[in-house]
Write a structure and sequence with these properties.
By secondary structure, the chain is of the alpha+beta class. It has a domain at 24-68. Helix content is 17%, strand content 24%. The protein has one helix and three strands. A hairpin with a 2-residue loop joins β1 (24-29) and β2 (32-37). The longest helix is centred in the C-terminal third of the chain and has 12 residues, at 50-61. It starts with 23 loop residues before the first strand and ends in a 9-residue tail after the last helix. The relative contact order is 0.15.
């Protein structure tokens, strides 16, 4: 996702426990939630709607993905 002249770059956030390591970063950008790898500064960047993001976060809170953690 490229940001042209006049477009603000997204403000990226990582988990407070990231500590500069291998982290997923997220940002809000208009009608989208962006997700990227903190180590790959040039992308790729994934984009999801607010509804998709909310469903994902709800799934995490409900433990839907706990089996993926070793």
């Amino acid at each position: 996702m490229a940001y042209g002249r006049g477009q603000a770059s997204p403000v990226w956030r990582t988990s407070l426990s990231c500590n500069g390591g291998e982290c997923v970063k997220v940002a809000a950008s208009g009608e989208a939630i962006l997700i990227a790898d903190s180590k790959q500064h040039e992308g790729p960047i994934l984009s999801y709607s607010h509804t998709e993001w909310q469903e994902f976060v709800s799934g995490i809170k409900n433990g839907d993905f706990d089996d993926l953690i070793k």
